[in-house]
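Supplementary Methods S3. Complex input for the manganese (II) ion-bound model.
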Amino acid sequence: MKYFKAGQYKLINPGKFKKNSKRIINLISESKKIILTTHINPDGDALGSELAFYDYLKQMGKKPVIINHSPTPDNFKFLDRKKIIRFYHRDREENNRLLKNADLIFILDTNQYSRTKCMADPIRKSQAKKICIDHHLGSNENHYEVILSDTNSPATSSILYEYFKLQNLNIINRKIATYLYAGIMTDTGSFRYPRTTEKTFSVCADLVKRGADPVWLYDEIYNNLNPEKIKLFGKFVTSITYHFGGKLAVGVVTLQDFKDYHSDVQDVEGFSTFIMSIGGVEAGFVIVELKDSLKCSFRSKGNINIKAFANLFNGGGHKNAAGASLPHQNPFEFKKRLISEYKKFYKK
Ligand SMILES: [Mn+2]
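Predicted complex, serialized as structure tokens:
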């Protein structure tokens, strides 16, 4: 199995990055009402980016507002002690009003409005200028005033580091360093995923120098599994089946499992990473049955472009990590279909 070489990280297009950063700074200074948002089920990078950018905007004398579609997962609540993040559904009317009257809306860690779910429509309709800062592969949405993107970057948080660096690294106080480190650590799977480069470590070294505490952050984020989740995980492990001589592993979590172990979709976090830790496995799928849909995670190693496979199911993501959301159906029937589709895909 050949892995990507963790080569020297370079910004894909430094000139364009600089130009777009300047445009963003200008737009911020022209704007009063600034909103930050991110994708459904926010992860450490989504939240870290939002909170870091929030703090930066405060330094610029702005009064930004963060509105998220989904509540903050329990293990990330410590990042938002002051509870500044607004949960869209808690006061939908007020949040719609805020979106409508905004001058500037930042979409972080995703480039698709649809990933903000119910917020997509209010965002689309808002007269605010929209700015995207993201490291995912491009979408065909073309309605951004500025896109600050770098698909080589392991995290949106590391794009923000470059953005701050262009201005003045002293923007990165202890709080911002903590948010950015949390984002990079979680999006690299604690520095294990392919886009982890020498540069990732030098950025993180600087964040630690500026006050991020790697031991404390890891402990807060990862060492807090709840016992019910461990039971759900046990059930998940027994559901795993192997195909094509052990090169593909597939696990399923059903609605009944969630019910039996008093868990929800948040507790599935990490299952797809686990499946890839099984020796010999080159691709792993996790199928999660939700009330009105099926959520699928696809993972792969090396040169298997699992994003292209996810595209067959209207999904998206990265080369080695992708996902798709499908209409509700029997997860085990869907699993059969997935395996036969993967057989065809793999042959190509
Ligand atoms: Mn990310």
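Confidence is low (pLDDT under 50) at residues 1-9. The two ends are 18 Å apart (CA to CA).
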